[in-house]
Amino acid sequence: MSRLKRLGGVLVALMLLLPLTAQAQTTLDFWSFIDPAGDNVRSKTLAHIIDTFEKANPGVKIKTTVIQWDQISAQLLRADKAGAVPDVVMLYSPNMQTNVQAGNLLPLDKYMAAWSEADRKDIIMLSVAKKDGKVYGLPWELRVLGMAYNAKALRERSMSVPATLDELATQAAVFTKEGMIGLAFGFNPADATGSAEWFIPTLSGMGAKVLNDDGTAAFDSPQARRLVQYIYDLVHKYKAVPMDVALSGDEAIQQLAESGRAVFVRTGTHRIAAMREKSKLGNDLQFMPVPSFEKGKRSPALLQGWHAGIPTKAKHPDPAWKFIEHWTSKDIQTYQSQSAGYLPVRESVAKSDAFNSPERMYVRDAIVWAHQDPLNFNWPAKSDYLINVLARMFEQVVTQKMQVADALKWAEVEYNKQVKP
């Protein structure tokens, strides 16, 4: 073979390798509130998901940027204007519509069109991720918001699981008097999602609206006055919630639960595995629906989820979709449900035998609750402001700066400043 032919063959080989070389240099910028380098169960689960994706797609690497969970939405809105967005972003349910309506998320329908009809129907979609019939994000995990409790502490005092809100207050007061945190529940406006996630379904279960049909506030109702008075009583009458706890944020509440100091805590199914691990309670840390004032009636289940979306200005949308596809696959959904206790986003996984074990029965029970008593509430585009106003209202009440009725009226006026034309 002549030298020229050999040289031509080498050039052809190099040209064939060029696409692979370019592919090997693809790095997806991924915004997450979970650090895959951490040593907790949620971090290890995410690390496994990223690792298995990179092994299945050797031309793609994931670079994770860790951002405080309640700051991701605001940072994405700013990043879109600056043109410096990630390729994949995590967004919590209440923040989806804010970003969908801002136009900074890519519709995923063209990618999902390649799935079989059975595959598309298998995904449990939340309405907050849709607009005009298009899908702007897929949930990678679901959670039902309820309460966790220390079953061992109740058993040692021959107490049954509280069947009403009043029973919850009475039992929690006993533990607080003993030096524990009877009920860990906080209303810090700087970290306040938990208070809204309790207030909205509980109030709805009492037959009252949170928002009017035109999007304005409907906070001041007889039911709301009773419910907000209950919060005041938890702190000042029952003394079930210490004042410093009542003024704490969600993360501080979570830490109290993980330390094993709190007997009852407002939380979600997604936290149970980590709380069991850190508190050393194991299966003695149980999950329960939120009770109502009426015995035998529970409040509606609030089903929330973290979504994976692709920003409109993402540099690598196609491999970003592959990552989302991997994350929502049956194998990964089964894995993360077993490892981290997440509710799966696929019905086929949710119906599997994986949740019949004592360690995972709470997941199965939460799914049943969400199916039987779902909350019908659409988070508005101003959900961040809604959450903040409700927390500020509670803060005014528990610190005795406002009476219940005055605080609810104030909250209505404050929220409507943002939604009325």
Task: Characterize the structure shown.
The protein is α/β, with parallel strands linked by helices and 421 residues long. The chain has two domains: 187 residues, 3-Layer(aba) Sandwich (D-Maltodextrin-Binding Protein, domain 2), CATH 3.40.190.10; 205 residues, D-Maltodextrin-Binding Protein, domain 2 (3-Layer(aba) Sandwich). Helix content is 50%, strand content 14%. It has 19 helices and ten strands. The strands form two sheets. Strands 1, 2, 3, 6, 7, 8, 9 and 10 form an eight-stranded mixed sheet that branches. A two-stranded antiparallel ribbon has the order 4-5. Strand 1, helix 2 and strand 2 form a beta-alpha-beta unit. Helix 2 runs antiparallel to helix 15 and helix 18 packs antiparallel against helix 19. The longest helix is centred in the N-terminal third of the chain and has 22 residues. It is globular. The protein starts with a helix and ends with a helix. About 2% of the residues have low confidence.
In round numbers, the mean pLDDT is: 91
The CATH class of the largest domain, by name, is: Alpha Beta
The class by helix and strand makeup works out as alpha/beta
- Number of separate helices: 19
Q: What series of H and E elements makes up the topology?
A: HEHEHEHHHEEEHHEHHHHEHEEHHHHHH
Q: Tell me the Rg in angstroms.
A: 24 Å
The largest sheet is: 8 strands, mixed
